[in-house]
Amino acid sequence: MADSVLVLNAGSSSLKYSLVDAASGTAAGSGLVERIGEETGVLTHHGPDGSTRAERPFPDHESALRAALDAFAAWGPSLDEAGLSAVGHRVVHGGALFSAPALIDDDVVAAVTDLVPLAPLHNPANLRCIETARAVFDDLPQVAVFDTAFHQTLPPHAYTYALPSDWVEEMHIRRYGFHGTSYSFVTRSAADLLGRPVDGVNLVVLHLGNGASAAAVAGGRSVETSMGLSPLEGLVMGTRSGDVDPALHAHLHRQHGWSLDQIDRSLNRDSGLKGISGHNDFREVSRLRDRGDARATLAFDVFCHRIRKYVGAYYAVLGSVDAVVFTAGVGENSPAARAASVSGLERLGIAVDPVRNEAPDRGARFVSPEGSDVAVLVVPTNEEWEIAQQAMAVVREPAG
Ligand code: ADP
């Protein structure tokens, strides 16, 4: 493959990896290391001969990445034969420093290190993978693709919290937004589907996976997004609360003696769909709701109500909307969530067609009725392919 890119996507306790052909998006091999830092970890590798699973401890992201490279060597495809052109690292937080992907050198590593306070769980994992890959692959170009970069076009009135101004200047407290690689990919695909140039589309994009967020895209550029300083703000997620009253921390601390760590952990890990229903997996929530379970029904309703609120708000932000776009695990696969999230918005020209919405199709498609004022689209995201394409674009840039 001429444009083979090893894409590394490190989470706080996981590492997704994929060998992607940047030209076609085909992944010749991929895998996932989970439960990094726990007593027993799991590596699942998908190669040319099917899937292989190994259970053993992975103390840190370096050991996880080395295990992933061993998995390619043992089970294929061979990275040597693939002739890698680059390694593409998804880096969660690029702060206000990075509005585009960056060729990794010591300065970029130092900048990502400086941003650790803004993403204490994620940037260290990304850095560990970068250090390890630089040691293993020597001269191979490595590119950092930032999850925040797509939202660097937010205007000041959208990224500024109504807080004392020195908080921004001294502590960099502002809205950054995340899921940028997904929004970048989905915006281009949606424009293709609409038959319009990217800079000619206004979209409300809903990325509904384990993490969930919304973005308002005007002329192909992000102008508002629901995640803020961290990925905790905004929509209801698998285990994250999304928006809550900012007085909640003080209340829990003063009235109930909770520590900050306890509150932080609970809002990130025990809230969202899981907090309300006991289940973070949307499939399970949907299954229980279909059986009439009251908590699962409430979780579904809160999830979709929050989305509907954001769609309405972003309609107001954009003034005119060409399409509402659903993507990621829930957005691509749950007709019920799509229908509930836009129900009642018919007066805004937003509705789904029941037959199109329920059809078991997989590709990018319209689910709104023929001739709707606002199209409703389902567009599969592909963050790995986006990272590979952005990495190759940087590698091909003329030096200087
Ligand atoms: P991430 O990449 O953030 O880990 P995904 O985009 O894979 O997440 O989305 C995971 C979510 O999508 C889970 O809540 C999962 O239950 C949900 N999901 C996947 N398939 C379906 C489906 N067929 N119906 C409903 N929800 C689904």
Question: Care to describe what's here?
Answer:
By secondary structure, the chain is α/β, with parallel strands linked by helices. It is built from 16 helices and 14 strands. Helix 7 crosses helix 16 (383-396), helix 11 packs across helix 12 and helix 12 crosses helix 14. The structure holds adenosine-5'-diphosphate (ADP). Residues 209-211, 238, 281-283, 286, 328-330, 333-334 line the site of adenosine-5'-diphosphate.
Span between termini: 27 Å
Spatial strand order of the main sheet: 5-4-3-2-1-6-8-7
Unreliable stretches: none
Q: By helix and strand content, what is the structural category?
A: alpha/beta
Ions and ligands = adenosine-5'-diphosphate
Q: Give the rounded overall mean pLDDT.
A: 97
